[in-house]
Specification:
390 residues, alpha/beta, 6-stranded mixed β-sheet, 4-stranded parallel β-sheet, 37% helix, 16% strand
Length: 390
């Protein structure tokens, strides 16, 4: 994307989302205009909004979230996919009709499938069995072939399968966990977007989890250079304290993991912390890009995602709930007047079959049944004949 196009997009997307005017004594809302008509879906990646947290933030602390579900396929991984594929195109590693392969918990696969569909590449995704079924269906809807690997193989198993397929068939492997095009894209887009949004404003803490480590490394490099007083807080699941353990991941010559990390245990925060320390993450850790490490429980992640939906109207997944839970832990200890920014990686709709929705019923509860019975017509009550009219 050209710098001019990026600037026009940024200007349009950073305009107030709705402008008010007075007309005939009534307050009317007018959507802010966009800068242009886009040539294809990939041009809409990035420039996601920063949103204030109004009800969950503790008194005396200002909190914001960068909503990556505003990307076209509803996650931060859209950035990774366009970065890796266009980097491969520039290097001559991809030609028309080639097959692109990736190992993923789902969001990267969805993003890669979207970019492949737009650019005309074939797409094969390897995904471990425990990840949500709806992710498989979305990828297949986008034209990808989804190869499900056994649960016992964990993340390292799906990575090994992707490597095996590429070696046999001569396909292109994205290598999201090792590919430096991943954090480089965040250093050239996500980080500068944050600097623009907070230009001339206070920002004391940047809080993020990690999957590949691309967002963490790329954004933190930019913040540490431009705003060294901003503290970077890294999050990981309490059940899988890979960074906290201090134990390095053994690697193959490619940088891919040679085996599963001994500190890993299953956790519900899909997209966070595979069963190895990705090379992209390790490079960020070795560069000293974080100031504090905070563990998050699965229960905290789920509860906070549900609160964001019901109290703020912000519809994010378990990883978004985990990120906000971490930001709230930082807020609880931060000095009064502090400003905190966290990332919301994706949308809640990726988690309908996961523990995030276990407490959400499809059928009417008692309160809803009482509301239904409060008027006489069109009642659908358990064990009774439907009522169409009183």
């Amino acid at each position: 994307m050209s710098a001019a196009l990026g600037a026009r997009r940024a200007s349009a997307l950073r305009a107030s989302p709705a402008k008010a005017r007075r007309a005939g004594g009534r307050r009317a809302l007018v959507a802010a205009p966009r800068a242009q008509i886009y040539e294809n879906i990939t041009q809409t990646i990035g420039n996601t909004p920063v949103i204030k947290i109004n009800k969950l933030a503790p008194e005396g602390v200002t909190m914001y979230a960068k909503a990556e579900f505003f990307n076209p396929l509803s996650s931060v991984k859209d950035r990774l996919a366009i970065a890796v594929i266009e980097d491969a195109e520039r290097k001559g590693l991809l030609k028309p009709g080639d097959t692109v392969v990736e190992a993923t918990s789902g969001n990267t696969g969805i993003a890669v499938a979207m970019v492949c569909a737009q650019k005309g590449y074939k797409c094969v995704i390897c995904m471990a069995e425990p990840f949500s079924v709806e992710r498989r269906k979305v990828m297949r809807m986008l034209g990808a072939k989804v190869i499900v690997t056994p649960k016992a193989g964990k993340g390292t198993g799906m990575v090994a399968k992707a490597e095996e397929l590429c070696e046999k068939h001569g396909w292109f492997l994205c290598r999201q966990f090792e590919n430096e095009a991943n954090p480089a894209y965040h250093s050239s887009t996500t980080g500068p977007e944050i600097l623009t949004d907070f230009a001339g404003k206070q920002l004391d803490y940047y809080v993020t989890g990690y999957g590949t480590g691309g967002t963490f490394q790329g954004v933190s490099r930019v913040l540490k250079a431009a705003r060294p007083d901003t503290k970077v807080v890294l999050l990981e699941p309490e059940a899988a304290p890979l960074v906290g353990s201090g134990i390095a991941t053994e690697r193959k010559p490619t940088g891919a993991p040679a085996g599963s990390h001994p500190a890993f245990a299953a956790h519900p925060v899909q997209g966070w912390t595979p069963d190895f320390v990705p090379l992209v993450l390790e490079n960020g850790l070795n560069a000293g890009l974080y100031d504090e490490l905070v563990p998050i429980t699965g229960a905290e992640a789920i509860e906070t995602a549900q609160k964001l939906a019901s109290q703020e109207g912000i519809f994010t997944g378990i990883s978004g709930g985990a990120s906000m839970a971490g930001a709230l832990k930082v807020a609880a200890k931060a000095p009064k007047g502090s400003v905190i920014l966290t990332m919301l990686p994706d949308t809640s709709e990726r988690y309908l079959s996961t523990p995030l929705y276990e407490s959400i019923n499809a059928d009417m509860n008692e309160e809803e049944l009482e509301i239904a019975k409060s008027t006489p017509s069109f009642q659908l009550l358990p064990g009774e004949e439907p009522v169409l009219a009183a």
